[in-house]
Design a protein that fits this description.
This protein has 434 residues and is of the alpha+beta class. It is built from 13 helices and eleven strands. The chain has three domains: 109 residues, 2-Layer Sandwich (Alpha-Beta Plaits); 179 residues, Trigger factor, C-terminal domain (Trigger factor, domain 2); 94 residues, Chitinase A, domain 3 (Roll), CATH 3.10.50.40. Strands 6, 7, 8, 9 and 10 form a five-stranded antiparallel beta sheet that branches. A four-stranded antiparallel beta sheet has the order 1-2-4-3. A two-stranded parallel sheet has the order 5-11.
């Protein structure tokens, strides 16, 4: 087998492979001889079909199968021979496939960059120290009361915490867009159901009043076609309703599933939920800090094929379609895609260099948590994931990434930082205050 490799651009490689004709022809002949002993054809006894008849009937199909398999085998062999590590699947272009001649093809692909993770000793993270207070419990219980409020229609202007029932229709440059209209839509002012400008535009409105609300969509948006654009909404207020909150008593606790223990049992349950939320948020904040600094401290040449694949994944996650991506939309995803590719490469290199092995018990715990969150039986969830290779790979990648984060947190410098529960859960508010 002859192999030659040339650099196309950056990490791009074009590999030309030539395979001796004998390797293909010998395998084709072997499979056709095997067919002679098994195939059934009219006019011939089983096992007595002549080779030339089998070759005429099945030769093209068998040869196609052999060519495909030989290309896959020799591609892997050529990579090993040339000590190349591809970053994804190659584009294979056959150059010569005629019978009796050497098989020739070209494989184009990106290779992984050489990586030496640096700067770990420079990483410093703040570990939040958060105590759940009675005030935190009271805030949650108040939100629960508001969530279970009943609403009474009133004849006055709408104010904060009122519910208004509206019809609305929005346009951008006079054209409709996805999700631009609704009828009899209930909206609680100040609840954050719709953009702040929209809610503010309804304060002081009365039933039967029509208002025009202007809103500019943020530049970073799940739907790129709306990012940064201004919309005009025509809104008709049909009703204004004020909330009536339930009393915080044992009957309310029972309504929320606390049949025994009353309000105290409800407070205990709320505290447990807040502690779990706190622990998850602390973990996510630590993870974000350590990975962001790791990425900032390491400059890498990134394979374009991995960036393209990540852009397509982000596009699908945001509800975008398949096919060619317009340049205007590509730019909305590219920075995030490059960041994710870089972190993926760095994490994989730490897995390799530090010999980090997948923790199977941890993976089982994660699957059980996923099942509990979705209300699914853990054994059914495990079976479903085990039968889906892509889903299993996703779970394994998630677990191994958490193991890498654990390893990093053992290496870096940490400093405790007291925070309130609200500051932990709303880091943007904390940043603004500082």
């Amino acid at each position: 087998m002859q192999v030659s490799v040339e650099t196309t651009e950056g990490l791009g490689r074009r590999m030309k492979v030539q395979v001796p004709a004998e390797r293909v022809e010998n395998e084709v002949d072997r499979r056709l001889r095997d067919l002679c002993g098994r195939v059934k054809m009219d006019g011939f006894r089983p096992g007595k079909v002549p080779m030339k008849v089998v070759r005429k009937q099945y030769g093209a199909q068998v040869r196609s199968e052999v060519l495909s398999e030989v290309v896959q085998q020799t591609y892997s062999e050529a990579l090993e021979q040339e000590s190349l590590r591809p970053a994804g699947n190659p584009h294979i272009e056959p150059k010569r496939t005629e019978a009796g001649e050497s098989l020739e093809y070209e494989a184009t692909f990106d290779i992984l960059p050489e990586i030496e993770v640096a700067g770990i000793d420079q990483i410093r993270v703040e570990r939040p120290q958060v105590e759940i207070t009675d005030a935190d419990l009271d805030n949650v219980l108040e939100r629960l009361r508001k969530q279970h409020a009943e609403y009474d229609e009133v004849d006055r202007p709408a104010q904060e915490e009122d519910r208004v029932v509206v019809d609305f229709h929005g346009t951008i440059d006079g054209e409709d867009f996805p999700g631009n209209s609704a009828e009899d839509a209930p909206l609680v002012i100040g609840a954050g159901q719709l953009p702040e400008a929209f809610e503010e535009g309804l304060k002081g409105a009365r039933a039967g009043e029509e208002r025009t609300v202007e809103h500019t969509f943020p530049g970073e948006l799940a739907e790129p076609s709306l990012a940064g654009k201004s919309a005009t909404f025509q809104v008709t207020v049909k009703r204004v309703e004020e909330p009536r909150l339930p009393e915080l008593d044992d009957a309310f606790a029972a309504r929320l599933g606390m049949e025994e223990g009353g309000v105290e049992a409800l407070r205990d349950a709320v505290r447990g939920n807040l502690e779990r939320e706190r622990d998850q948020a602390v973990r996510q904040r630590l993870k974000r800090q350590v990975l962001e600094q790791l990425a900032d401290l390491n400059e890498l040449e990134l394979p374009s094929s991995l960036i393209d694949g990540e852009i397509q994944a982000l596009r699908q996650q945001s509800g975008g379609g398949q096919g060619e991506l317009p340049e205007s939309e590509r730019s909305a995803y590219e920075e995030q895609a490059r960041r994710r590719v870089k972190l993926g490469l760095l994490v994989n290199e730490l897995v390799r260099s530090q010999g980090i092995q997948l923790d199977r018990e941890r993976m089982m715990r994660q699957i059980q948590e996923m099942a509990a969150n979705s209300g699914q039986d853990p054994s059914q969830a495990l079976q479903q994931i085990a039968q889906n290779r892509e889903m299993m790979q996703s779970v394994e990648a998630s677990v191994i990434e958490e193991q890498v984060v654990d390893w990093l947190l053992e290496q870096v410098q940490t400093e405790d930082k007291p925070l309130s529960f609200d500051e932990l859960m709303n880091p943007e508010d904390e940043d603004t205050a500082s």
